[in-house]
Design a protein that fits this description.
CATH architecture of the largest domain: 3-Layer(aba) Sandwich
Radius of gyration: 25 Å
Strand content: 5-15%
CATH topology of the largest domain: D-Maltodextrin-Binding Protein, domain 2
Oligomer: single chain
CATH class of the largest domain: Alpha Beta
Number of strands: 11
Number of domains: 2
Strand order of the largest sheet: 2-1-3-11-6
Shape: globular
Number of helices: 19
Structural class: alpha/beta
Largest sheet: 5 strands, mixed
Distance between the termini: 44 Å
Length: 455
């Protein structure tokens, strides 16, 4: 299927963190009459303040976006009809910095965190540490209804839903139809990584992949291992000294073979060792662009580039999309999964109201509007039927299908160590060796988890 440009504009700071409540102490001993007088004055003051404060304000810590979460907060405040208000506080742009700020404050039992937008890989860590309020069965049932499979897996820890799925993300295979036709590939059928490598080599074009020593490399490795029928961690719920890595397997070696071939044959271009998602997109839009694995932002970013004149309309007209590549013919691809889930802070003074607010935030019609305004795909399947979604994202049905097949990254409290260990041992991809890297990588990460080696 070939995309066509649709011109539209997109809305594009952050409030300060709310102050923590100050604790007040007073003298231990007082005369009885003075104590009664002070108590009466305090009650009067408290009553007056309570009358002025109005309904509880829930603070929602959000990841930076184009303003969609702020809009949803206002909508749900109005829908609450005075039961609560929602104020947003914006976290840092970097996902690891988001995690560090939230974890540090929750470790201090910060009651100001009522709701938080959480990157799925950090959910097991927060749940295991007791940072997330329990999601009751009735809320979990409501929040799970009509949700894509990948998002449900990413919101679950120890067989329980611990966060509320909000928006989900996945990678597609984007391609230049002219290159695919010249290579004789039928893109209406599943394609494999070997077919893409052969097509790129024969046409002397480049593959858009992410080889930077960053989270994007972990995403790629995990998708390859999962698509080969394996997993990176055999027992993700285990303690750090009992975690077993499954990289030294046929699936791990097949993932290493693909990375090595792309790196050694120069199919990812000279910039592959530092290529992230944006660099891959720039390569794909260029004269040697061919095939690329990347997130749905590709579509809106290319539309915007056409509007500002930095990319020709012909490039947009030449773009098609397909399911993520398979590792072997006849096997099902397991695309990457990402997105944002909503967690309720374990130390919130209003956990029930926060859960009610979360259910309001994730209503399918709000997810659909958020997709159109901010480009973040819904976790709710019903949102994909929205006419505005279908108009703005002609690949919406494929995104939904991809999210049903998507494989979350290792769901373990020690994800940070595992991801950093993979980046340390699988970079640069041209130096990866199928008969060595999966084994040594597993040994290195195991040693890190046991405190025997430092990252």
């Amino acid at each position: 299927m070939v995309g066509r440009a649709r011109r539209r504009s997109r809305p594009g700071g952050p409030p300060q963190d709310p102050p923590s409540a100050a604790r007040r102490t007073g003298p231990v001993r007082r005369r009885a009459a003075v104590a009664v007088g002070l108590a009466a004055a305090l009650l009067a003051t408290t009553a007056a303040c309570g009358a002025e404060e109005g309904p509880p304000t829930l603070t929602w810590y959000i990841n930076p976006d184009a303003g969609g979460q702020q809009r949803i907060a206002q909508e749900c405040t109005e829908a609450a009809e005075g039961e609560y208000r929602i104020a947003v506080a914006t976290l840092p742009r970097d996902a690891n910095a988001q995690r560090e700020q939230l974890a540090r404050r929750l470790a201090a039992r910060d009651a100001s965190i009522d709701l938080m937008s959480l990157d799925p890989p950090f959910i097991p860590e927060f749940a295991n540490a007791g940072f997330l309020a329990e999601v009751p069965d009735d809320v979990a049932e409501q929040a799970s209804e009509g949700v894509v499979e990948g998002a449900l897996q990413g919101a679950t820890w120890e067989d329980r839903l611990v966060t509320i799925p909000f928006w989900a993300n996945t990678q597609l295979l984007w391609y230049r139809t002219s290159v695919a036709e010249a290579a004789g590939l039928d893109m209406s059928e599943p394609v494999t990584w070997d077919q893409l490598m052969e097509a790129a080599a024969s046409q002397e074009v480049l593959l858009g992949v992410q080889g930077a020593k960053a989270e994007s490399l972990t995403v790629w490795i995990n998708a390859l291992v999962a698509s080969a029928g394996g997993e990176i961690v055999a027992n993700p719920e285990a303690a750090s000294d009992e975690v077993e890595l499954s990289l030294d397997s046929d699936a791990g070696r097949e993932a290493a073979r693909i990375l090595q071939a792309i790196g050694q044959q120069g199919l990812g271009g000279a910039g592959l060792p530092t290529a992230d998602e944006n660099a891959s997109l720039a390569l794909f839009q260029g004269d040697r662009g061919s095939f690329m694995v990347n997130w749905p932002f590709v579509w809106t970013a290319t539309e915007g580039a056409v509007e500002d004149g930095s990319v020709d309309q012909a490039v947009l007209d030449d773009i098609g999309w397909a399911m993520y590549p398979a590792v072997a013919a006849g096997s099902e691809a397991r695309p990457p999964y990402g997105g944002i889930n909503l967690g309720v802070g374990a130390f919130s003074d209003h956990p029930d109201l926060a859960l009610a607010a979360a259910l309001c935030i994730v209503e399918p019609e709000r997810q659909a509007a958020y997709f159109v305004s901010d480009g973040n795909p819904p976790s709710a399947t019903a949102a994909y039927e929205d006419p505005e979604v279908q108009e703005a994202f002609p690949m919406a049905d494929l995104i939904r299908q991809s999210l049903e097949q998507a494989a979350p990254r290792p769901q373990t409290p020690f994800y940070n160590e595992i991801s950093a260990g993979l980046q340390e041992t699988w970079h640069p991809v041209g130096a990866v060796a199928p008969d060595r890297t999966p084994r040594t990588s597993g040994e290195f990460i195991t040693a890190v988890l046991r405190g025997e080696q430092l990252l």
